[in-house]
Amino acid sequence: MASVTTSALTELGGKFVLNRDAKGSDQDVTSQKNVLSGSGTIFLIEVDNEANSSAVFLKIVDSTTATPSTSTPNGAGTPDHCFIAPAHTKMCYSFPAGLALSTGLTYWVTTSKSLGTSVNPSSAVIVKILCA
Amino acid sequence: MALSKTKFEDAFKYRIVQETACDNSAIVNATSESGSIYAIHFVNGSSAASLKVFDAEAVTLGSTNADMVFRIPASSTTMIEIPDGLPFTYLSFAVTANPNPSDNTAPAAGVNVRFLVR
User: Fold this and answer.
1) For chain B, where are the alpha helices, taking DSSP H only?
2) How far apart are CA A72 and CA A75, in angstroms?
3) Are A60 and A47 a contacting pair, CB within 8 Å?
4) Which of A56, A84, A101, A102 is the mutation pick for testing B, counting most B CBs within 10 A?
5) Domain ranges of chain B
6) Are A23 and A118 in contact (CB under 8 A)?
7) B66 in reach of chain A (CB within 8 A)
8) What is the pLDDT of residues A42-76, one digit of tens each?
9) Considering CB atoms only, which of B67, B82, B102 is closest to A93?
10) How many Å is the maximal CA-CA distance in chain B?
């Protein structure tokens, strides 16, 4: 399933990004780029890695695009934020005051914290992001 | 730099670890024991930087990749909560200028970083 963004009128966090099979390879992340169609603020992130026996890493860049395989330091494959989800766990990260993204929300999920890693997780990783 | 930790372990389940001027000199094994991170708070009075968190007993900035990276906006305060806790064996961390997970560039100024751990 590709990344889907749903908007609703609420006082806090009116945009819900859901991806039931988040990927990391360059060719698979098309729908995971600029999912807010511009700037935004993240309030909650949930990474469900219960299906995998190894840790995965949710990488987020404040940009409208990214190329995860780029290993040049601080280049198109360098995330601004990297969140770990250990093996067989579901992690929740919350930002009560928000995590501002001035340009866009682009994300990918891969199997290594190393720069330039674009390997897809073995089994589906579910990513939920609540934004405004 | 000044690393400090709350005491009274018998009275409180949680501890606060604070580094008042965290920079590219990594703080390693800050709690001297394993545990879980429940919150991270950082206050930056200078230019943008990146907080790197490592689950590693030894960290060599420039080659060791961070397990977690958080962008620290310029002149900002950021709070991250982890309700279920993120387990670690060794709590190590540093602040560098760039988001590259193995960056070792010094930030413009030290950042006040606090962890709530148990």
Assistant:
1) none
2) 5
3) no
4) A84
5) 16-106
6) no
7) yes
8) 999 999 999 999 999 999 999 999 999 999 999 99
9) B82
10) 40
Q: Chain A contact for B68, CB < 8 A?
A: yes
The percent of chain B in helix, strand and coil, each rounded to the nearest 5, is 0, 50, 50
CB contact (8 A) between residue B70 and residue A94: no
* Domains annotated on chain A, with CATH: 15-131 (2.60.120)
The string of DSSP letters for A29-50 reads -GGGSSTTSS-EEEEEEEEE-T
Nearest to B53 by CA among A36, A47, A65, A82: A82
Query: If you ran DSSP here, which 8-state letter would residue B107 be given?
Result: P
The CA distance from A45 to A17, in Å, is 9
Please state the length of chain B. 118
Provide ipTM, 2 decimals: 0.93
Residues of A in contact with B102 (CB under 8 A): 73, 115
